[in-house]
Design brief:
The protein has about 350 residues and is α/β, with parallel strands linked by helices. About 30% of the residues lie in helices and about 20% in strands. It has 2 domains: about 140 residues, 2-Layer Sandwich (Chitobiase, domain 2); about 190 residues, TIM Barrel, CATH 3.20.20.80. The strands form 4 sheets. Strands 1-8-4-5-3 form a 5-stranded mixed β-sheet, with helices on one face. The chain has a 4-stranded parallel β-sheet with strand order 9-10-11-14. The protein has a 3-stranded antiparallel β-sheet with strand order 2-7-6. Bound molecules: 2-acetamido-2-deoxy-beta-D-glucopyranose (5 copies). The site of one 2-acetamido-2-deoxy-beta-D-glucopyranose (NAG) has 4 residues, from helix 2.
Length: about 350
């Protein structure tokens, strides 16, 4: 008899939903389903943002049509300090308490409340024509890591703004908070720059370009979902498209054959070969313009400079490098590289 009772008790806690990632603490207080009136999604901007997320939309629109009387139709959000900016280390903790009478969220920053709303969204179950939460529940949560990112490469295959937003939606649902946007590479420069208009000749097609408005659109879309966007302008390796259209002098080995059976002779890890010539002063003038403009476009305090996969032999194709070595035979490629470090 006792055993049977235990079995029954064990199934009482067996709710269907499991928020992802698992909250630090989740305590189901009972199993009395709470029907809720999705009309309240209309009343708050943060909630509208949430409603806008692709997976949420169909659910909540259907729910509104069925709107239940007497269900929970409000939510109380308390944010200690809504001026805390969305930057590395922003407090994302929150408490979410749902019972038969109310939904309460409190958090230190806006970003915590946004995370709480994502959890709330995951708690909603649709079954037999009804939208409900399976019981009263108390959640305390904070992320284990301040940087939870995805790196997106739009420099080998162009990705439309729409596709990038879809990626942001999916990141948002699982509470990832950093989009590391690898915008440019050897093959492609899809970003329009006012300060160096010719760079955009490094785009594949006229329609495959990011305007200033596109960038702002993506940043705002991510921001509203608590996601930072970190731009990466990869250099001095992985640099060719755009530069080659504007001023070839800032490049080294751009016409070399990238590969050889001997790895030490490679001028690139993959074709086409090309690196910024770091002994050319014009390179720095160009990079200064790029950094000034791109850092103005993005709001994050972090800027990714790339700096990966430099190939030593590429610089043997640079006259400046050859002359630099000739001028002092004690100089080496490692010595040149240390200019960057
Ligand atoms: C929700 O999405 C619609 C359609 O994409 C858009 O016009 C609207 O600005 C979005 N609302 C918010 C608050 O993001
Ligand atoms: C709120 O956060 C901002 C930004 O971090 C900070 O400057 C300000 O002092 C905070 N206000 C309070 C009352 O803590
Ligand atoms: C680069 O600038 C430095 C400092 O102004 C100057 O000494 C050097 O000759 C310049 N090099 C080239 C290749 O123009
Ligand atoms: C490249 O130049 C350096 C410095 O002059 C030299 O030591 C090295 O052997 C060269 N490498 C190749 C593959 O020519
Ligand atoms: C030549 O280069 C070496 C290595 O960088 C350096 O220690 C030395 O001072 C240089 N000699 C001259 C005359 O500049």
């Amino acid at each position: 008899m006792k055993l049977a009772l235990l079995t029954v008790l064990a199934t009482v806690g067996a709710v269907k939903v499991n928020p992802l990632p698992q909250p630090q603490s989740i305590e189901w207080l009972n199993e009395n389903a709470i029907v809720f009136n999705p009309l309240f999604w209309k009343q708050n901007t943060i909630l509208k943002l949430l409603k806008n997320q692709s997976l949420a939309t169909s659910r909540f629109q259907q729910a509104r049509l069925k709107g239940e009387n007497g269900a929970i139709d409000s939510i109380t959000i308390t944010i200690e300090n809504s001026s805390i900016p969305l930057q590395l280390g922003a407090d994302e903790s929150y408490n979410l308490i749902i019972d038969n009478n109310a939904i309460n969220i409190d958090s230190v920053s806006t970003w915590g409340s946004i995370q709480a709303l994502k959890t709330l969204q995951q708690l909603v179950v649709y079954e037999k024509g009804q939208f409900f939460i399976e019981g009263s529940v108390r959640i305390e949560d904070h992320p284990n890591y301040p940087h939870r990112g995805v790196m997106l490469d739009s420099a080998r295959n162009f990705l439309s703004v729409k596709k990038i937003k879809e990626q942001i939606d999916i990141m948002s649902l699982v509470k990832l908070n950093v989009l590391h946007w690898h915008i440019t590479d050897t093959q492609l420069w899809p970003l329009q720059l006012e300060s160096i208009p010719g760079m955009i000749e490094g785009a594949y097609l006229e329609r495959e370009q990011y305007s200033k408005n596109d960038v702002e659109d993506i940043i705002n879309y991510a921001y509203e979902r608590g996601i930072r966007v970190i731009p990466e302008i990869d250099m001095p390796g992985h640099s060719r498209a755009g530069y080659i259209n504007v001023n070839e002098d800032v490049l080294a080995c751009q016409h070399s054959w990238w590969s050889n059976d001997d790895y030490s002779l490679h001028t690139a890890v993959e074709p086409p070969a090309s690196q910024l010539d770091i002994l050319n002063n014009e390179t720095y003038l160009m990079v200064e313009k790029i950094y000034n403009e791109v850092s103005g476009l993005f709001q994050d305090y972090v800027f990714h400079v790339g700096a990966d996969e430099l190939q030593a032999n590429c610089y043997n194709y640079s006259q400046l490098f050859v002359d630099w070595i000739k001028a002092n035979l004690s100089r080496t490629y490692q010595g040149l590289k240390s200019i960057l470090d």
